[in-house]
Amino acid sequence: MNNLQKVPSVALIIGSSGQLGSELASALLKERPDQTLICSDLHQGTAPDGALFEALDVLNKPRLEDMIKRYGIQEIYHLAAMLSAKGEQKPEMAWRLNMEGLLNVLDLSVKHGVGRVFWPSSIAAFGPGTPRDLVPQWPVMDPRTVYGISKLSGELWCQYYFQRFGLDVRSLRYPGIISWRTPPGGGTTDYAVEIFHEALRTGAYTSFLQAHTRLPMMFIDDAVRATLELMRADGERLSVRTSYNITAMSFTPSELAEAIQSRLPDFQIDYCADFRQAIADTWPAVIDDQVARLDWGWHHRYDLNALVDEMLTNLAAASVNP
Ligand code: SER
């Protein structure tokens, strides 16, 4: 089977206006230009050329069912969620969106024979009982945020649907994702995106995490490629049906600032930790993703220096040619 034959011809992205969804849509079209790709998000939005857009609230199960039937959806990327920091401000809504949304997708996928589902988990599924360094694939997981609890529960639901109903659902525990086209919304790792915008705009940034808070991170191109590689991997090789550990690098706000200063020497950083510090303090610093590397050949391409170069170059170009 060549690569094109592995790519289904009708796919749906739920949460396509978000940080990951917007870039995944372009990558999916590049992978298979003749596919029918439906992008959807809560509010009316845009899709890249060659894709369709439909507004969809994933909590509206009848509407989701209508779309799956109407288009004959073969593959779903369910990315709509409320992230860690925002979720702590609206815990009930976060639980409902993150859990009920996933269960709607899983249930309708079984009912209508959707061939494959992708759903992201996160480093937020770990907690203070998890080792901080080199977190193995199967550690203690005791998340302390609503977002993290929903991710851990969701992982177990994914495994349950795979084992009980044979639904081919696949998942990655993303670290903080850093991108320049679309901002993240409401996460604890968002500082690592904001810092680049402010470095170029004002030359200074106040970090809401302390200088030495080390967290796992990944450049968006690696995150998108990991998603597609996992989705195209031979199912027989996948030993994990909860969610795969995956990482590219780990750094602190002060190390990121130094890397920026080596390119923009006048850049200034200071620190004023807020409630997000307490969230970050429960997350691990370094992830061990060797199971993903062994099972389906994961390898990252962007380290800290490559990430900083990409972010500064692309954001500077985007401000000249918005
Ligand atoms: N980036 C996410 C957050 O900070 C972690 O998955 O909430």
Question: How much is the average pLDDT?
Answer: 96
C-alpha geometry? globular
What count of structural domains? 2
Write the CATH architecture name of the largest domain: 3-Layer(aba) Sandwich
Helix-strand string: HEHEEHEHHEEHEEEHEEHEEHEHHH
Q: What portion of the residues fall into strands of 2 or more residues?
A: 15-25%
- Which CATH first-tier class of the largest domain would you pick? Alpha Beta
Which topology of the largest domain does CATH recognise? Rossmann fold
CATH superfamily of the largest domain: NAD(P)-binding Rossmann-like Domain
Task: Report the radius of gyration as a whole number of Å.
Answer: 19 Å
Major beta sheet summary? 6 strands, parallel
Distinct helical segment count: 12
**Helical amount:** 40-55%
Number of strands: 14
Taking strands numbered 1, 2, ... along the chain, how are they ordered across the largest sheet? 3-2-1-4-5-7
Through-space gap between termini:
41 Å
Spans with pLDDT under 50 lasting ≥5 residues?
Answer: none
